[in-house]
Amino acid sequence: MPDTAVFSTAIRALRPDLQRRRLLAAGALLPLLAACKNPLGPDGLSLTREQLNQALATRFPMERRVLEVLTVQLSTPQVTLLPQDQRLGTALALAVRDRIFDLQARGRVALTYRLRYDPSDGSIRMSDVNVDQLELASGATALQGYLQRIGSVLAEQFFNDLSLYTLSASQRQMLGTLGQPVIEISADRLRIRLQPAS
Fold first, then answer.
1. Neighbouring C-beta atoms of residue 29, cutoff 10 Å
2. What's the domain of life for this entry (predicted)?
3. Of 166, 163, 160, 162, nearest to 181 (Cα)?
């Protein structure tokens, strides 16, 4: 039979090592547990300008009739981050055709907008859209003047409430009880973080 005193001493000597291992294991699990509690991850969800461009590119080219007179097509969106205003900017290629006189022109349109979270489908959507610049190639003066006058209609029909990104089903399911996403725009990325429910 082994000496019980020696055996007890050996067990006591091992205890600090076991405790240290348990602490290390618990420390390794903390980030995983935090991620489970926060469906957007500990630092929120980050999207770079390139990722935003890729997400927005899936919505284009887009074509609409404006007041049944013009056919407008927009393509090749390029996103700009505007952290000082907490807005995004987007420039797009523009093609316009007057359906009455069969006039056609190409140009560029630049707009800025805020983002909002829509809890009904977990999407991040454009809101408060402003058309800041609308230019057509030379020789399309009549069309340009007409488009300038209906710029707000153009913004509303094309962009207001347009979805940029959609959270996953598991993220949306957890958000209802944990809080609301807060959208922050920095110089190099858009971050969606969780604001805990009060």
1. 10
2. Bacteria
3. 166
